[in-house]
Specification:
By secondary structure, the chain is mainly beta. The chain has one domain. Helix content is 0%, strand content 76%. It has a 3-stranded antiparallel sheet with strand order 1-2-3, with no helix packed on it. A hairpin with a 2-residue loop joins β1 and β2. The protein starts with 6 loop residues before the first strand and ends with a strand. This is Autotransporter outer membrane beta-barrel domain-containing protein. InterPro entries: Autotransporte_beta_dom_sf, OM_autotransptr_brl_dom. It comes from Paradevosia shaoguanensis. One of its GO terms (cellular component) is outer membrane.
Length: 49
């Protein structure tokens, strides 16, 4: 989606180590402009073995 001419873009995320080598994360992204709103939430899990 294209970015509006006057828009605010916000991104934030958090990762949490649930055990050695394993991480659980969540992130948020939002774009707000005149006549435009786009939001997303993403979750992920990473495990190293």
């Amino acid at each position: 989606m294209p970015i509006a001419r006057d828009a605010a873009v916000i991104e934030a995320g958090l990762d949490y180590a649930i055990m050695p080598g394993a991480t659980l994360g969540v992130s948020y992204g939002g774009q707000f402009g005149s006549g435009l709103t786009d939001q997303s939430v993403e979750a992920n899990f990473n495990d190293r073995f």
